[in-house]
Amino acid sequence: MSVPTKSPGDPGKTRRSHARANRARILDAAVTAFIADPDASMDDVARSAGVVRRTVYAHFPSREALVEGIADEASAALVAAMGDEAQQPDRPDLAVAVMALRTWPIGDRFRMLLSFARRELGEQRIHDLLGVVRDRDVRVVDHGQRSGVFSSYLSPTVLVALAESMTMTLLDQANSGEVQDSGESFAVAYLAVLGLTPADGARVVDEARHWLREHPDVPKS
């Protein structure tokens, strides 16, 4: 008696893969739509994604859920961009510059969160979003203070909080076109908050760009 052979492929796996692809397409379309118009509707997002309205609602049952999905996507992208902590430079000033250059493109892509997610999700959600990198920043700044590289006029936690507020300001300025580089201004400003002169900060940022070129296996964005 012959044993029935299993048909190749896994229909369930295929459906899950298709659903993930649709979800990613919808999120990308939503980012684009909300950058163009913060009041874009779910229908606008569906048209931009090339799917029917029902597909959007299958993944995100409300506009708030869609905005939350974008925030979650931004959080995951930040984690991916940071890479493995063990792979960061040992020198704290260089580590800060590398982290700034890695994460700026993520903030730049999702900067429309500043224009409407604050209103729809609240300031606390934005604060929580940055929490995925905050602990590492605090550790690096603490190391820099203990080694004499960074100023100690404020605690590491307060300095990182200042840098986060500055990040919001710079992303707002990117929205208006005043900041147009790839994170160099952000990195120099961050290092200035930590006590480096702008000239020294610019030199460290140049080193960071070289370091990233030498470590292509480490995610940049």
From TrEMBL:
Keywords: DNA-binding
GO molecular function: DNA-binding transcription factor activity; transcription cis-regulatory region binding
DNA-binding feature ranges: 41-60
PROSITE patterns in alphabetical order: HTH_TETR_2
Region of interest called Disordered, as start-end residue ranges on this chain: 1-21
Pfam families: TetR_N
UniProt keyword Amino-acid biosynthesis, yes or no: no
Gene3D superfamilies: Tetracycline Repressor, domain 2
Occurrences of domain HTH tetR-type (ranges): 20-78
PANTHER family: HTH-TYPE TRANSCRIPTIONAL REGULATOR RUTR (PTHR30055), POSSIBLE TRANSCRIPTIONAL REGULATORY PROTEIN (PROBABLY TETR-FAMILY) (PTHR30055:SF209)
Annotated protein name in UniProt: Putative TetR family transcriptional regulator
Originating organism: Rhodococcus wratislaviensis NBRC 100605
